[in-house]
Each structure stands twice: as structure tokens, then as C-alpha cells.
Amino acid sequence: MFRRHLLKSVLTLTASVTMIPKAQASCSANGEVKIAAVGDILVHGALYAPANQSRQGFSSIWSSLTPLFKSADITYGNFEATAARGLSQSGRQLADPGRVYDCRHPVDKDGRPNTKRNGGDAVYCVTNFLFNYHPDMIGALKQSGFSVLSTANNHSMDRGRLGVDKTVESMQEYGMPFTGTRHSKQNNAFHAITNAKGWKVAWLGCADAVNWSGAQPQVLRCNSEATMSLIRQLSKDRSIDAVIVTPHWGGEYQTTPSSSQTRLAKRFADAGATAVIGNHAHVIQPLRIVKSSDQRDVPVAYSLGNFVAGQKGIERQMSIVLFLDLSRSGGVTKVRGISAVPVVRVGLKIVSLDSAIANGGIAGQEREAAQILRSRMSEARILRPSQVCQ
Rounded to the nearest 5 degrees, what angle is found at the Cα of 324, between the Cα atoms of 321 and 325? Predict the structure, then answer.
């Protein structure tokens, strides 16, 4: 009885955020577009190696949520690694070893590549500052319903400049739209365009910081005039219906946004962003509404938390699948509805929070999970759907 009561309280936290335990087959109304967004896709070794060996592959980690992603017209995620086929930790181009997890002794005590111990030849390995997924990860996400990925984050250059190039090539190989990074020779656009139900939605990813000391012209930086100029340009393009900015920003493990994040959010809104979906904190941060200079209500999700990560503790195991319902009136796009589904990692799988509670997957942590959602969502009451056009 207590568990059922707690589950009910978790799924009805506020009237402004609708928690849906099970996805509908078709979610968006006529003339509208439903966007789904998840947090950091950070597949640490504890998850990567078993999934890599499973018959289902990488999608086995989140397979129970695939119907949720496919219920949206567009699904977004932050791809927090490189996908540089055959590129070793030391920067050598090797023959692709296939879908292996070949970490041996990849870093020394200071976190630098330990080339003396393994020749620097580990290719597909997820360790601090050296993340590289097999490109099949992109294919698994696409088959699961993902439509666009951000490649702009602090791990964008974990395989150096060549790693950025090869990640771009991998995205192109799998036909996955991506945003936030640029090939050194192709000079591709930093933004991506997704098409759904006659809507063109522009996506612009950027990074607050990168784990690389050299020049970083291949990664779009959030606090730059180039980013603001791109937002203004995209928002003024009459062929584009919405502009979603996806910053990788703020401090890790901080449950509230920093002053620099709130200032940037206002700049994004003033430049013309329809919505802002952020990540990097590895925990859930509040959803808030920012009033733009032209008096638009711009939803800002400062951090959706870890969608996939091997980190421990309910704070870092839980995240939000955010849904934005976009509508148009008088040539203006607005976020008509906002809903969210809390999810959590239980063992090697990502499942909905209600399922985890019902099955005892987070036994003893139910109250903490509910409190996390209440405290973060209390600031999101202003995110009630704007019923401007009915």
C-alpha cells in the first residue's frame, strides 16, 4: 500500500508537468509536433562491455523505453563521447577491431594516456577524458527512434581533432543529424535541421568547456558571438519553424543552475531560441521559463540528468525524458505543452521510474527519488502548457 501511494505521488508531482508512465502509440495532435529529449548518453564501461556482448547490442540498455522515443515526432540526445572508428587513444589510426571493449591500462594516475603500458592502442574504451564508442552506438540510437544528437560537449575532443572528424564521418555514415561540431575539411554547418510532419526544427548544440588545451575551432562554444549570431540567423529564417538550443554547460553534480547558466539562457532566449535543453550536470536541474526580450515564454531545462551512465547513487542514476509539444499560431511557434517521464538506471538497464518502484528496483530510495523530483519540479510550475492557440 505504501509503495502504491508513493508511486502515485511521484507520478502526480505537479499539475504543470504531466508524468506519463507509458507512451502512447501516437502523441502529437494534428498540426503539432512532439519533441522528446534525454540527458547525457555516457556509456561507461560497466554498461558498455555487457551491452557490447549482448545479442541486442547497445540498445539493450534502454530497450524498454524505445516505444517512448518512437512516440515522439523528433527525439534528441546528447552523445557524450567520440565515435572515431579505429582511432586509438594515442591518436594512431588502426584497423577497426570491431565491436570490442579493449581497455587494458588506458590511463596513468594523472588521467593521461598510459602509452607505455598498452602502446596507446586501446580504441573503444570509456575512461576519463578518453571516451570513444564504436560507431554502431549511433546506429543503435537511430533504430531506437533518435532523430538528432548533439556532439558538442566536454568529451568532443577526447580523440583530438581527428577524432572530431571521424565522429562527424560516423554520424554521416549512419545518416544521423548532429549538431555542435564541425569536420576540419568539410566545414559542415554547426546546426542540424530535422523534418517532421511538415515542420522544420533547427538544433544548435554548443559546449561550455572542452577537455582539450589547444585550439577548438571544431566545437561550437556556448558563450560566443558565433552561437548567438547563429540563433538569430536561424530564428529569422522563415523556412524554419523552431530553434532548439542544446548547451552542455554548468558545473557537474550541481542541482541548481549557476549564474552564468541563467545569463546564457536569457541570451539564448533573446536571440530567438524556442526552447533550451541543457545537460552536463549529471543530475536533474530545474525547468524554468525565461521571458525573452520580445515577450516569448522560453522553456529552459537546465539539465535532464544522466540518461545513460554507470555512476552510482539515485541522483546520478535518475533522469528525465522531456516532452515538448510545439504549436503554431499567426506564424509564431510556441511550446504548447510540457510533460516529463522520470527514468532510472537499475543494474544494466534504463527503465521508467514507476516501473523501478513497482518492481523494487530502487528499494529504499523511493523517498529520495520523489524528493528529487519535487524539489526540482517545484521551480517548474511556471512551465504549465501555454494555451495561446487552441
Answer: 140
Domains of the chain, residue spans: 2-44+57-83+137-383, 85-131
C-alpha 208/C-alpha 302 separation (Å) is 13
Q: What is the pTM of this model?
A: 0.89
Residue-wise pLDDT for 15-36, tens only, equals: 333 333 344 444 567 789 999 9
Residue 155: exposure state from Cβ atoms within 10 A (0-12, 13-18, ≥19):
buried
Numbers of helices and strands, H then E, in the chain: 11, 14
Closest alpha carbon to 69 in 105, 89, 41: 41
Distance of CA 84 to the CA centre of its chain: 19
Specify the pairing of strand 74-79 against strand 148-150.
parallel
Average pLDDT over residues 161-189: 97
C-alpha 376/C-alpha 390 separation (Å) is 29
Query: Residue 91 gets which letter from DSSP?
Result: S
Span between the terminal Cα atoms of the chain, in Å: 40
2-44+57-83+137-383: in CATH 3.40.50.300: no
Please provide the average confidence, as pLDDT, over all residues in the chain: 85
Which DSSP state fits 87? B
Highest mean pLDDT among 62-71, 270-279, 375-384: 270-279
Report strand pairing: 318-329 vs 33-41. antiparallel
Interval 289-324: pLDDT, tens: 999 999 999 999 999 999 999 998 889 999 999 999
Task: Tell me, rounded to whole angstroms, the distance of Cα 8 from its chain centroid.
Answer: 27
Strand order in the sheet with 191-196: 191-196, 199-207, 242-248, 275-277, 297-301, 287-291
